[in-house]
Design a protein that fits this description.
By secondary structure, the protein is α/β, with parallel strands linked by helices. The protein has six helices and eleven strands. A four-stranded mixed beta sheet has the order 1-2-4-3, covered by helices on one side. The protein has a four-stranded mixed beta sheet with strand order 5-6-8-7, with helices on one face. Strand 1 and strand 2 form a beta hairpin. The two termini are about 40 Å apart.
C-alpha cells in the first residue's frame, strides 16, 4: 500500500503473522515489508511505520543506491570519497619532485598529491590518509570516554579488516578499522564506546547493551548508519 507522511510517500506490503508487535523490514532491493499481528488495526500499523519513517526512508534509499552504484572506485579526477560522513571530490595533483604521496582536504575537495599518477599510487595515498586520520580520531574519542570506565585499554591499534569495524580482546586490546574515518563522528563514537564496553562485558549480553545504552541512548541509530551506509566506505 502507499502511505504519505511528512511530504514523502512510501510503498510497502503488509504481512499479517502470529506475532505481538509490528516489525518493519527492508530487503536488499529497498522493498519494504511490514509484519503485523493478525487482526491489528491499520491505524496501529501506520503509527508504527510513521514512528520509524526517517529510518525506513534512509534504508530503502540506501539499498536502492547500493544496487545501482558502481561497486568499485575509480581513481580519476572527480571521484567521490567519504570523510567523517561527508562526500568529497578528489583532485589528483601529480608532482614528480615530491618525496611522499599524501592527501589534504581543502574546503570540499580532497586533494591527492602523488609522485606518479597511477591508480595504485592514488589508492595508497588515500589509504594512508584515512589510516592517519582514523588513528588520531580514535585516540581523541577514547580519551573523551575514558572517564566513564575504570578499565583502560592495554593497546589501541588501527587495522585493515573487511569483516568488522572494531574488536576488543580479553587482554583489553582494542582494534579499529581504518575505514571508520569515513563515518560521521557520532558513528565513530558508537564503535569506540561499543568496544570500550567490551572491556567490562566481553559478550553481547543484556548487561553489555544496557551499558552501551546508558552511555549512548541513541546507539541504535548510530549503528544503523553503519548497516545502511557502510558499503560506501571503500577506497
Amino acid at each position: 500500500m502507499l502511505h504519505t507522511f511528512l511530504d514523502n510517500t512510501i510503498d510497502f506490503n503488509i504481512v499479517y503473522k502470529q506475532r505481538k508487535s509490528v516489525g518493519i523490514y527492508v530487503d536488499i532491493y529497498g522493498q519494504i515489508e511490514v509484519h503485523a499481528p493478525k487482526g491489528a488495526p491499520i491505524e496501529k500499523i501506520l503509527h508504527a511505520v510513521e514512528d520509524k519513517w526517517d529510518l525506513i526512508l534512509a534504508k530503502s534509499t540506501e539499498m536502492k543506491d547500493r544496487i545501482s552504484e558502481p561497486k568499485k572506485k575509480i581513481y580519476n579526477q572527480g571521484e567521490i570519497f567519504l570523510y567523517l560522513g561527508k562526500s568529497y571530490t578528489i583532485t589528483i595533483l601529480p608532482n614528480p619532485e615530491q618525496n611522499q604521496d599524501y592527501c589534504v582536504i581543502q574546503q570540499d575537495i580532497l586533494q591527492v598529491y602523488v609522485k606518479d599518477h597511477t591508480d595504485e599510487a592514488v589508492k595508497q595515498a588515500l589509504k594512508r590518509f584515512y589510516y592517519q586520520q582514523c588513528k588520531a580520531l580514535i585516540e581523541v574519542r577514547i580519551r573523551l570516554y575514558q572517564k566513564d570506565f575504570k578499565m583502560k585499554p592495554r593497546s589501541i591499534r588501527i587495522i585493515d579488516d573487511s569483516s568488522k569495524w572494531g574488536s576488543c580482546s580479553s587482554k583489553l586490546e582494542l582494534h579499529f578499522n581504518w575505514k571508520l574515518a569515513m563515518a560521521p563522528v557520532e558513528v565513530i563514537d558508537y564503535v569506540v564506546v561499543h568496544e570500550m564496553c567490551h572491556m567490562v562485558h566481553l559478550n553481547h549480553d543484556r548487561s553489555f547493551w544496557r551499558l552501551v545504552g546508558k552511555m549512548l541512548p541513541d546507539y541504535e541509530s548510530r549503528s544503523a548508519w553503519l548497516a545502511i551506509s557502510g558499503w560506501k566506505m571503500v577506497v
